[in-house]
DNA sequence: CTGAAAGCGCTTACAG
DNA sequence: CTGAAAGCGCTTACAG
């Protein structure tokens, strides 16, 4: 059994109230001598206040919950890392769950998190598998932020996907491309939809139309990107450029094009999305769009744990992207 | 304020003890009618037992802590995902922390985790930045498992790195290579050390010696792999094959070789480690060693949460690897 | 089968 | 500046 506050009180010869006050380290006035005694006792007994008891009395678990589709997809842990960084700086810890895009798993994760009385909850991903029981959230005083998903009910932090898609479109148009294939993420991904919308806006502004057979689903995986690219290239009028909604799919596209004996960027230009670390080390180096996943996390936590403790009205933040031009789009001849 | 057990008791017209018993869902005998009333009240009030209170009385937080160097490196979240899967199946949740290989951060993470009274603790990574206060662990009854790090004090789950390295060595020898460069992970990485040891054993068995200038540090990153490869190739007698201790470094190596106008595998053979999803989609497709990070996590949790609740003596598990032969090693002509 | 009561380890008015 | 006591929301012997 670890030492409790009573043990420390006995050891120091003071009341538990006093121990509590020095252990918590607030600015409650304590006699210098008393404080020293208590500190010594804490040290001697290796006392570490029980977080559950603290949470219970203070009505604050100091826990923030994170729910993401799948923590084994690098994008989510990176956001979570951002969340962790600001959370720990504020004395919170993160409890994370994967839903696998399954509503059932999502529901039980949320339940477990609410049972643990998380002070804040971040829901990552544009899917709709997570449904939040708003009555309970209010009762528990749990602040919520959605990352990458649109809603008015809660605060949101989102990537400027449409703007980025538009920028990619304009870039490719400027390079002379008029037929641009789009490798989409999985069905229902709002991020992918928005990127496509941006691309189409750019094309429309240039008077170029975009057909539905110029879009193929790639499921956000290398394999999906590979297959989608083959489908795109086997159309009656294959595109001269491909925009993949993620770098992982772009890597699949690169393999597919290579296997079809097509050179990138000479025969087909390629642009990805995310700017994962290895994008720079592909050959040709991948032109892509950089988004700071870490930043999404820090911004989100900033919204939740702003220190006031007062629930505010939902806020909506947007995180900028930055296009990184390397070799695969053909803008830079190698 | 969310409904408490008293609210439910009042609503159902029974004692809190009774509510506790039906809410906990054990096999404690309860009258059918009473049970129905309580269940109805729980439903009506949307009662969800407070996890902190439960934890406090039951002396079990139902929390497992995970400490890893950096959750933004995909390898760790994947292990963590394995941990999560078995943890949630057993009614636990995971609290995760990144240390950035900084002893200070590690210390405060461990402290925070112990304060939360985690029932179990998994320490991931071969580094030594994490030091565990054994006295406290015993007092708290916290079970510990180290993933990827050798120790007798706690249970461990480790990858058969040396065996894998040896297998790679033999494979490369069989292909005729006599000079094999090794791209190592960061300094002090036991995984990297073990893989190198295995490689050297294979070489030694074949009567081939391996010099220290045939090893270059690559820090487990693409950039590190790139630079290390250049250094290796600039030696007086450049290797005919390169074994990188991670796929990410292998990708850097691939770029470096390409930039040096060297063809893989014709001029230089290349083997990675990890078998990340995109290894198959590189061109040439990467020959590598597959390790199930997810499995490391499930095995580790299996050791901790075995349901007996009784602390056992440390157990030591080893997880097999599997060499995946693709194009980059030259075994399969493309 | 059901309930009253003590207790888990803290915090925090309240009184002095 | 210090302490006694109530209370946070549960569980669990113990008694009936």
UniProtKB/TrEMBL annotation, chains A, B:
The keyword Nucleus does not apply. The keyword DNA-binding applies. Residues 3-58 form the HTH lacI-type domain. Keywords: DNA-binding, Transcription, Transcription regulation. SMART domains: HTH_LACI. Pfam families: LacI, Peripla_BP_3. GO terms for molecular function: DNA binding. InterPro entries: HTH_LacI, LacI/GalR-like_sensor, Lambda_DNA-bd_dom_sf, Peripla_BP_I. Gene3D superfamilies: 3.40.50.2300, lambda repressor-like DNA-binding domains. This is LacI family DNA-binding transcriptional regulator. It comes from Georgenia daeguensis. The lineage of its organism: Bacteria, Bacillati, Actinomycetota, Actinomycetes, Micrococcales.
């Amino acid at each position: 059994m670890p030492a409790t506050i009573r043990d420390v009180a006995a050891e120091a010869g003071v009341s538990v109230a006093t121990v509590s006050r020095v252990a918590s380290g607030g600015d409650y006035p304590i006699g210098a001598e008393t404080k020293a005694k208590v500190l010594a006792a804490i040290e001697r007994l290796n006392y570490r206040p029980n977080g559950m008891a603290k949470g219970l009395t203070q009505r604050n678990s100091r826990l923030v919950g994170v729910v993401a589709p799948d923590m084994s997809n690098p994008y989510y842990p990176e956001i979570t890392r951002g969340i962790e960084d600001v959370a720990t700086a504020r004395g919170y810890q993160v409890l994370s769950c994967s839903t696998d895009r399954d509503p059932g798993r999502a529901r039980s994760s949320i339940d477990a998190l609410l049972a643990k009385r998380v002070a804040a909850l971040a829901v990552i991903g544009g899917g709709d598998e997570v449904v939040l029981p708003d009555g309970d959230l209010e009762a528990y005083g749990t602040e919520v932020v959605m990352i990458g998903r649109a809603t008015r009910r809660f605060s949101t932090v989102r990537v400027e996907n449409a703007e980025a898609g538009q920028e990619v479109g304009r870039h490719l148009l400027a390079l002379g491309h008029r037929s641009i294939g789009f490798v989409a993420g999985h069905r229902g991904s709002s991020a992918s939809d928005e990127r496509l919308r941006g691309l189409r806006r750019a094309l429309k502004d240039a008077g170029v139309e975009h057909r539905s057979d110029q879009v193929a689903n790639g499921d956000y995986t290398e394999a999906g990107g590979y297959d989608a690219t083959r489908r795109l290239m086997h159309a009656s009028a294959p595109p001269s450029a491909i925009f993949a909604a993620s770098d992982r799919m772009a890597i699949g596209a690169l393999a597919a094009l290579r296997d079809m004996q097509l050179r990138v960027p000479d025969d087909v230009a390629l642009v990805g999305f995310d700017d994962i670390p290895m994008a720079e080390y592909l050959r040709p180096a991948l032109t892509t769009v950089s988004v700071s996943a870490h930043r999404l996390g820090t911004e989100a936590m900033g919204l939740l744990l702003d220190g006031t403790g007062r629930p505010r009205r939902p806020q909506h933040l947007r995180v900028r992207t930055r296009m990184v031009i390397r070799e695969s789009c053909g803008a830079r001849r190698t």
